[in-house]
User: Fold this.
Amino acid sequence: MAYPNTRMRRLRASAGLRGLVRETGLRAEQLVLPLFVAQDGAAPASQGALELPALARLSISGALERAGEAAALGLGAVIVFGIPSHKDEEGSGAYDEEGVVQLAVRALKQALPDGPLVVTDVCLCEYTDHGHCGVAREDGTIDNDATLELLARTAVSHARAGADMLAPSDMMDGRVGVLRSELDAEGYADTPILAYSAKFASAFYGPFRDAAGSAPAFGDRRSYQLDPANGAQALREAVLDVGEGADMLMVKPALAYGDLIAAVKRETGLPVAAYNVSGEYAMVRAAAAAGALDEREAVLEILTSLARAGADTIITYHALDAASWLA
Ligand code: PBG
Assistant:
């Protein structure tokens, strides 16, 4: 049946009708706030004149304060990134029992036992002096298999500190399986893994790398992160991670990858997290600061579109703002 019997505008005529048939809603409890905890203490984040408050480096007490705000607004989780004062070839700060993430996680779980879940990013790039996500060989290539052991040690130390969920972001082959078996062997069989499965080599990580001081000192990450042109490969990564025991799968970045959020959800049926990354946050902040768009409307539209694409969980630097707007 077509026009004039069918008029799509009938159900758009009032706020009441639009609300009645709205397909997608957003809940604060599905949002995850990134926290950058720095061993050397707090520092604001900016790009030129543009302030990026959600990318600021926090002390542990600053992280507790921000997690407290997250708790008050009902956010589902925080994801903790560490910025160590010392970097070395093997990224030893990543698996140091007294490392910055381990200390921050213990503090968060102690101060806010009923607060947001504490997820940790499991990677070496913030801890290696060369800034790569794995062990670098003499010739500058990244040694997949030598990296796995260090990632597993990192994951186990995060679990021991009390992390509720572990999120490996390194893109080494086989890491989910190795993490799962090491965690099980160490008594953490119930700690879930959120795999950064479809993580692309993206231009949109720039502000994060500035904030975390994790830009690679040589080369780039294209030998381990996905080529943005490859959707079928991204799906294979997701399916392999399911086979290795991932509990949740991530697509990252988010805005240019809605096709993969939908495809990963459809193909695997697992809970899917979309990572609305730092460059995407900076774009919105810059456009809003220039008066080109309304930040609140733009953010809620973006987050709703990610949920509509199939994301169950959304990691976003807008999480505190969005939760306050939804309240
Ligand atoms: C660590 C990691 C990165 C991000 C999350 N985990 C940086 C990278 O891979 O270069 C990026 C997050 C963002 O840009 O918001 N491997």
In short: The radius of gyration is 20 Å. The chain is about 40% helix and 15% strand. The first helix runs from residue 15 to 20. The chain has one domain: 25-326.
